[in-house]
Amino acid sequence: MPVNTMKKLSVVTLTKETGDLMRALQKLRCADICRTAVPPSSEDEREPAVIYDEELAGLPAVDTAAETTALNAHIAEVGRAADFLARFETKKKGLFTPVEEVSFDDFVANDEAAAEETVREALALAARYDAAEAAARDTAAELAALRPLEAYPLAIPEDKTAATVTVVGTLPSGTDVRAVTDSLDGLAAVLEKIAPVDGGTAVACTAYHGDADETLRVLTACGFVKSALRAGAEDGFAAGRVAALEAALKEKEDELDRLRAEASDLSQKLPLVRTLADKLDTDAARLGATERVKRTEKTVLLTAWIPAAAQQEISDMLAARGDAYEITDPAPGEEAPIQLSNNRFASNFEPVLAMYSLPRYGTYDPTFVMSIFYMLIFGLMFADAGYGALLSLGCFLIIKFMKPRGSMKSFMMMFGLCGLSCTFMGILFGSYFGNLPSTLATTFRGSETWIKPLLFDPMNGQGPMYFLIISLVVGAIHLSAGLVIKMIILWKSGDRFGAIVDVGSWLVIFLGIGVYILLAMVIGVSGLAGIIIAGIGALTIVATAGRAEKNPVMKFLKGLLGLYGIVGYASDLLSYSRILSLCLASAVIANVVNLLGTLPGPGFGSVVGLLIASLLGHTLNMALNLLGTFVHTSRLQYIEFFGKFYEDGGRAFEPLTPHSKHVVFK
After folding, report:
1. CB atoms inside a 10 Å sphere around CB 636
2. In angstroms, rounded to a whole number, what is the distance separating the alpha carbons of residues 507 and 194?
């Protein structure tokens, strides 16, 4: 199916109405506001995000720089307030707490003012708390540094008498105090060790006034650092200062407790602050889009892409506002953005398509067809009923209780659906956490009975060969589906002859090969009919592949060269052998895990071993092979399937919408 039809919207309104118009468009969530530019000289340089209009390109854009700067500053303030209150939040949001839905208009009308007041209170409280915390931290640091000197009876850092000076300081860790004392030989000075301190040894040096300077010079050369602490006679020396600091620290801690209680009470309004943050982010998104709008002296001119399905809704809104507007089809050379539109099943696989590249506007959207093959191939690669059931259960529980949004919800639903496919394939091929049922029966009952596969076991006998055949058959159908889509695209585009001879011929060849295999190898009769069918397709290619050449010889040679494409198709088909490889890889690892768990033999040891093996081995096996299955299933879509028909290069449709992280704006 083609991607959604897009329309180009052009609106003219008064400058003073710009904000109201942008809010209305944001509320509708269906207008991708575009820049306007002159078409570039080369089509290869064309930017799909831009609408080209010679007349509008020369007009200046609406200037929102000042408003944006102020808004960003306010967003930062609200963020700081929210971060502060979150530190004291008593009621944390649970893992499965759904995201709250909030009416944007109701919040602005009824709760925004209260939220702003909460932000102001939180910022003022945060400033008080930070100041109190810093003061307590400084007091605690001074107290910790002074405690080792608590018994010192003189002033710190310096005490003087009529004849002497005593200085308190620190020598580096590992310094030999006796060696420092020896270095003072010849000076009227005495060095006294006080106590070990953090990073060294606290010492006091008493020197005669006349030798004080030289003594300090010698001590400094030995690494002595004069103490920065202060404790004089008026403080009661070190002991008195320690007592005062302890009282001060207790007072500051009590103040912090009061502030914490106040912050905890205020944190009850944190949801309001977070909603305000989302509202401001929404305003910022609107201002960013407004910068793309052109202006004249008294009016603004807006251009945007809108889905054709939203045309009536937007027309009604603009008519009610009294704006002048026009809705037209894209002009030649304009690439409209891409909005995919699939049913509820296929829409879950749209993120997989987007990971590769969106289709170009007006081309085929293969999401629905891809989703069917994606589930089928995913299930074959990870064909285990146990792993599949866990995958589906986990994904569906996440969707139910965690309420993910956007692409995350789509991914969860996609993996849940693929888990159902894995479960079905596991039942067909008898895999339940590998050979766990068989292992349990053999270990604890001495019996080899187990849940038998509905088809065959890929791990035993001819199973791998049968599974390889299934993989290649699925691959052939997958590739043929891609060719059928290409044929339909060519037919609808008017190139019906090319659809028949360039694509249909290969389908005839593949049909002939299939008929030959069915008759000659499966039924056991003559495969001549298949050879004839394939021959017709081959002759058609030889006769038409060189039709653009005028020289008969070159026409024939190029026709023969056209058959060389069979090599590429064979290579593509062999790529599907990875389905067998991925299936066997997960099965072998699961079987090894089961074997390791039952090594202790029948009894309690195997029960414990299996529990440990299941928790560790099967979890790791599931995680690793789930990743590998996702990557390789996607690769078969991107390379083998899309390579037959897909036209990529589209830009995603990005309408102006409310931006929210903590709530969902209705």
Report:
1. 24
2. 97
pLDDT band at 4 (very low <50, low <70, confident <90, very high): confident
* Residues 3/338, Cβ–Cβ less than 8 Å: yes
Q: What is the mean pLDDT of the chain?
A: 89
Q: How far apart are CA 585 and CA 383, in angstroms?
A: 11
What's the DSSP call for residue 454?
Answer: S
- CA neighbor of 206 nearest in space, from 278, 251, 261, 153: 153
Which residue do the tokens 């060969």 mark? 465
CATH 3.90.1720, domain 6-62+291-328, yes or no: no
pLDDT digits (tens, 9 = 90+) for 135-175: 999 999 999 989 999 889 999 999 999 899 999 999 998 88
Match 């039952």 to its residue by tokens.
598
CA distance 281 to 288: 10
**Which CATH architecture best describes the domain 146-245?**
2-Layer Sandwich (3.30)
Show me where the domains of the chain are located.
Answer: 6-62+291-328, 63-142+246-290, 146-245, 346-450+465-648
Give the closest residue to 119 by CA, choosing from 281, 8, 246, 267: 267
Asked if the domains at 6-62+291-328 and 146-245 fall in one CATH topology, the answer is yes
C-alpha to C-alpha distance for 285 and 270, rounded to whole angstroms: 23
d(CA 436, CA 203): 73
As a whole number, mean pLDDT of residues 421-433 equals: 94
- Of all residues in the chain, the percent with pLDDT exceeding 90 is 63
What is the length of the chain? 666
The secondary structure of the chain in percent helix, strand, coil, rounded to multiples of 5, reads: 65, 15, 25
Q: What angle do CA 357, 626, 367 make, to 5 degrees?
A: 30
- Give the closest residue to 383 by CA, choosing from 160, 180, 625: 625
What type of residue sits at position 551?
A: N
Residue 492 tokens read as 């609808």
The full 3-state SS of 32-48, as one line of letters, equals EECEEECCCCCHHHCCC
488's enclosing H/E stretch is helix 463-493
* pLDDT at residue 561 in the model: 83
Any residues with CB less than 8 A from the CB of 297 and at least 6 apart, and which?
none
Specify the pairing of strand 200-208 against strand 299-307: unpaired
Three-class HEC string of 122-179: HHHHHHHHHHHHHHHHHHHHHHHHHHHHCCCCCCECEEECCCEEEEEEEEECCCCHHH
Q: How far is the C-alpha of 353 from the C-alpha of 338, rounded, in Å?
A: 12
Residue 13 to residue 295: CA distance in whole angstroms: 10
Is 462:420 a contact under the CB 8 Å cutoff? no
Q: List, for residues 167-218, the tens digit of each pLDDT value.
A: 999 999 888 888 999 898 889 999 999 999 888 899 999 999 999 999 999 9
First and final C-alpha spacing in the chain: 31
Burial 83-92 (b: 16+ CB within 10 A, else e): ebbeebeeee
Phi, psi dihedral angles at 306 (to 5 degrees): -135, 150
Q: Write the CA distances from 48 to 309, 336, 341, integer angstroms.
A: 21, 6, 20
